Amino acid sequence: MDQLLNSVKISINHKIYLKDPESSGLGKKIVSHSILMIDEIGFEAFTFKKLGAKIGSNESSIYRYFENKHKLLVYLTSWYWGWVEYKLVFATNSISNPWEKLEKAIEIVTKTIEEDSTFNHINEVVLGRIVIKESSKSYLTKEVDGENKSGYFEIYKRMVNRLSTMIAAVDSNYSYPTSLASTIMEANLHQHFLKDHFPTLTNCSENKQPSAFLLNMVKKTLNND
To answer: For the whole prediction, is pTM greater than 0.85?
Structure first.
């Protein structure tokens, strides 16, 4: 089993990067340290020049992997959702009961992130914080339609479609399975953000996680007879 897990590679659309960062030690270093730096100083203050100084590499060498920091952010968020998808598929593959399968999927998507030793160069806990705080900046741009057509967000969209299919399996008469699926995905990030920064705007807390709220919402929305 460990050998199987160690062979897992998260596949990212090749149009997002110029050179696959997984193909070299420098590429992996760029990814791992960019995660730590964005978490520390924020995406707006983050630059390739600062990253180069941090990792002891020329700024130009980073540009050989990513055209700009926007593409890097798209890469990081895509990797995150690819990692969540891998965990979701692995955890739900053997579950036949539709509701139990959906419940497990929601748990995987919404639970507080724990570090995964399968990918040594990426701190999933820190990356999760970046996705919560910064991921909307990857698509709230004027270029979003063109990037969408180029497949930049295919992993995220695939995740929504997986949840939508599971929702329809639980309640085939429900008219909005995709809307509910995308709401689960976005509400999870929003509730985690509120919990950490605007606690008076949510009932979620360290003792009452967003996953409990979202499971409750789905149970009350779907007909699970």
So the answer is: yes
